[in-house]
Design a protein that fits this description.
Blueprint (H helix, E strand, L loop, with lengths): L7 H18 L5 H4 L10 H14 L13 H9 L4 H25 L8 H14 L1 H20 L11 H6 L12
Helix pairs in contact: 3-6, 4-7, 5-6, 5-7, 6-7
């Protein structure tokens, strides 16, 4: 009622609504990108989300599917889960690189890599490769190689979903693996 004193209940209700509206209008915290996401074979849920976002910037979707739809991250996670000292070394380096990318993004772009717009993610990856020393360069190079492998590998290895990568490059050979047909 006009002229009525504002009750505590009405004030708290209005304040709560305003806070909720403000929170919804802001970019989500990176944890929102990984809610409900299960960890992979070798990478944790947040590592998978960062890896997926970075792979999608390396091989983005346009008229054709990008790295995500082609299963590049599934390939990478599967490859990193193999036993042996070489796989452990690659897994350790990639995990270190993903953490470096998140830290680099926070320092250089002011936000978690997952919260950046695609163009800013491109800048973060490029600047890490150019200015991040040997570790930054090697990580971006390794991620680039793994992404392309995941896009173009035999589907039996977890990537190249529906042979989509092969279709993009015009490779129409019969699949040697019966599971991919």
């Amino acid at each position: 009622m006009p002229g009525s004193p504002l009750t505590r209940r009405a004030f708290l209700g209005a304040a709560g609504g305003a806070i909720a509206a403000y929170g919804c209008s802001r970019k989500s915290h990176p944890r929102g990108h990984i809610q409900g996401r299960a960890p992979g074979r070798a990478l944790g849920a947040e590592e998978l989300a960062v890896c997926e976002a970075a792979c999608e910037r390396i091989f983005p979707a346009d008229a054709d599917p990008g790295a995500t739809r082609l299963g590049a991250v599934d390939y990478i996670d599967r490859r990193l889960s193999r036993p042996g000292p070489r796989a452990r070394r690659v897994r350790r380096k990639l995990k270190k690189g993903l953490a470096l990318l998140v830290d680099w993004s926070r320092k250089r772009q002011g936000a978690h890599f997952l919260d950046l717009e695609p163009a800013s993610q491109d800048v973060a990856l490029a600047s890490l490769a150019a200015e991040g020393g040997d570790d930054g360069y090697r990580f971006v190079r390794q991620l680039l190689v793994l992404t392309v492998e995941g896009v173009l590998c035999d589907p039996a290895y977890g990537g190249n979903r529906d042979r989509g990568g092969w279709k993009i490059i015009g490779f129409d050979a019969p699949c040697p693996n019966p599971r991919c047909e």
